[in-house]
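Students often ask why we bother encoding 3D structure as a string. The short answer is that it lets us treat folding as translation between two languages. Here is a chain of 619 residues written in the first language.
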Amino acid sequence: MKVHFIGIGGTGMGGVAQLLRHAGHEVRGADTGTYPPMSDQLAAADIQVSSQYAASNLDWAPDCVVVGNVCRRDHVEVVAAQERGIPLESFPSILEKLILPGRQSLVVAGTHGKTTTTSLLAWILRSAGTEPSFVVGGVPLNLGTGAAFGRGEAVVLEGDEYDTAFFDKGAKFMHYGPRRAILTGVEFDHADIFADMDVIRDVFGRFVESIDVGGDLIVNMDNSEALGVAARAKCNVVRYQVLPDSGGASDLAEFCARRVSGAGARRTRFELFENGESQGEVSMQLYGRYNLANALAATALARRQGVSVAAIKVALRQFRGVKKRQELLGMAQGVRVIFDFAHHPTAASLTTTSVRRRYPEHSLHVCLEPRSSSSHRRAFGEGFAASFDAASAVYVAPLYRPEKVPPETRLDTAALAETIRGRGVDARAFETIEALGGSVVDRAVPGDTVLLLSSGDFGGLGAELLRGLGDAVCFGSAEDLLAVNRLLSGYDIPTVVAADNVETLVMRGDEPGQLAGTVSLQATGDCAFLFGLAVTPERRGEGLGWVLGDCVLRRARTLGVHRIYLVTSAAADFFGAKLGFRPVASDAVDPAVRETTNFSVHVGLPDAVCMVLDLPSEP
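And here it is in the second language, the structure alphabet:
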């Protein structure tokens, strides 16, 4: 089938377009703003993209036109399609017609946690070798894309309760006909389209009624509204619950988890219970009680799909998270900057509390951008005021496009800051994002954490904070690889061989495309290979090598690495004195590390010395 996408550059639309292309359909699209990585992904999938909207974009006579829910009926390509008699579809309906027939639909629904839980489930199933297709409203770091077509029978879908398109005001998830589904929780949200809680209960109720009678609903036992909705299910109901940090398994929930790692731990460790029986300890990078619930929900559904506990443990251990969900943007002058999509009072509270527990020392600066249709509204002001009790300081940005909400129902950011101050937390509302960022840079000191909360990009605040603090160490992108390899080649250091388990950290220079330094890490289970540490000649002698080395060791500990190897020809003294490495024979290096291409090219260098560092285990 020939399919045209209006707004193909978005995460969801672009992902579905790639999925259809890989499923064998001819796909094209248009968008006025398509940027990497989506533009690169579309090009790699051989999808032609027009940079302007025009009726002529339909001259290739597509069989249907896929319309996003932000597209209005007067859009030039919508009008052209209707004039030519070309059917309009939404991306949920095109999935329903072209992808789901003959496959098992596995849907994750709920007010909070959908993207992370969907990502976890897709990764668990892929890691277990079942080759699922998936569509996620974000970018899972392990998977690299928000959608993919797999040869397995399972299709993992993030199920959104929001309306589908201007011609279909029903919820997106009503198109998916799930065999199995997860319900993470039900709460009032999307005040722009849902009048009250009764309407939301009915929307979710109709969803659980749509689950195959022979399937399963996995429901959060800690959410009373979700349990109430689950009573309408005609299928088997499986409950999951995060237990208090002490005690045994629940007598009611089939799947339980009890956290055993303490505050400040780099990784979350928990004991898993299935039907009252302990399945042993699990370790993962995600932190926060709500992310533990997300992992437990994905585990429960994966078990119903026949995935072994052992395979699930491996997948959770390797899961690196989702972009814009507790995403560490970088670290500058000892200050870490984290971005999260939270834009609802409950999500903001859970995220702030979790980040404080993860980083209990020093100050936590929370920056809030009221951007979504719900967070703009005065009705959520009271909830937001109580969301930041765990913060040291709160910085409230101006409303994004305030005209979207009538003045009489619009959130008053100055009043919100005053109410937060009344709860004993320093808070201030700002007229511009630039002024907000300047205040954060002035006040943050080494050891502090800055948490950005927004459903958008916060006006590029994350990058500006890192630039303002100076000498930031960030995760490198595919676009950085050319500059990384150019810097390494200047020292006759082998270039980086890219792989899914290779992470490159970079310290960017003052000019676009310039780097001040770089280092890479390739993790293989609980061991890793550190390589490619280099600082540009004009910045040598400033201690940047130690900064990069310290950051990559921190990252290794977060990934659960217990032992790090490296190979050097001339810097053994530096690695020994500054970072604690010791020499080791090459044949004593972990076999999984020896098998990597990056290790092979380094160990073959003249005068190569292998070194190792054992990282201490967390209590």
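Translate back mentally: The mean pLDDT is 92. Keep this in mind for the problem set.
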